[in-house]
Here is the input.
Amino acid sequence: MNNAEPQADATDRALLQRMAAGDRMALATLYRSYHGRLCRFLSRLTRRPDVIEEVINDCFWIAWQKAGDFRGDSRVSTWIMGIAYRCGLKALRQHGDEPVEDRHIPEERTPATDPEEDRELRDWLGKGLERLSADQRVVVELVYGEGHSLDDVATIMQCPVGTVKARLFHARVKLRNVLPALAEGAHAFKEQAP
Amino acid sequence: MTMLPTYPSEDCPRAWEMMPWVLQHSATAEQNDWLSRHLAHCPACRTEFAQQSRLKQAMSLPADISLDAEAGLQRLLGRLDTPAPRQEPQRARATGWLTRALAAAVLIQAIGIGALGLKVWTADENPAYRTLSQEPAAPATTGAIRVVPDAGMTLADWNALLHSLQLQVVSGPNGVGAYTLAPRDNKTAAQTDTVQQLRTAHGIRLAEPVTGTP
Here is the structure.
């Protein structure tokens, strides 16, 4: 956790308190601040923009209803990510996790254009992530993308910390085996079957 | 099958575990220093750390699926003003379930009533019980005797006669003053003798055994 996070969490808690009192401006502020990271987080679960948008709105619909129930046992971001994760799983059960063909993506939802370097990085990452299970992709996103601790991830995914550790370990091993090496000595770690 | 790594040195597993937390700046200063020293003399872990750094950089890029946050927010705010649309299908499903359950219950009851009615209809018409309001099958009383006492017979004589012959009144008097008597213990063997005794008794004008069919 970096130094900015406690302050960000305090801001989020204040917004939740205002939401509990029915303040829609607070809801809008929280929605905008989380939209980008939720979009990326949920894109690890599904490639369907319509499902991602539906899940984000389901998540904030619940956050709006339950804002007064937030007990503060975790950071607000952990709480919201947990809601989004459960909404995402529910949506996958309803819609399936098959990606929509590019030609079916509405014009305003086409992937953003990237600088060449970012595109290469995305391609490199995509080759690795496609080899992971959905749960492994979520753990990698929460740890490397969102900067959550093992305890946070366990809270979000509602599973034991040991399970998170195992998912992270196997995800890293798979990624290391799949992703192209960056420098010399790439095969210094020899492999063996478990 | 996941291929597990083997490590060049004993410190490598510790370095492997520490890398994500150093990269996300949640490791302690001591852990940071230890990993730096390890990486300085371990090429394999340097390579792994470089790949982990690139992974973190890639994971930190914005989503490659672009959504309009403002449009989504407006849809959410619109949904707040119409709070029930997503609940409606669930309620409809719940109501449908309740309706089907009630219909099933009614159907089961109808089948049960039908089966009970059929059983009652086919059952013996002479049940083993008799209600208080039911007309007794008087003539069927075994050993019954119809008796017409004399008008001058006293109640004490009448009672003494019935007592001596172990008889009781089961019906009467009817329109012509006749009583139907029956043995107290339902014995029929002595009916003829009893009739004879009644006929010879003082104050009895008529004594005839009751037959089942005329």
User: Anything to note?
Assistant: Chain A is about 65% helix and 0% strand. Chain A touches chain B through 62 residues (CB under 8 Å).
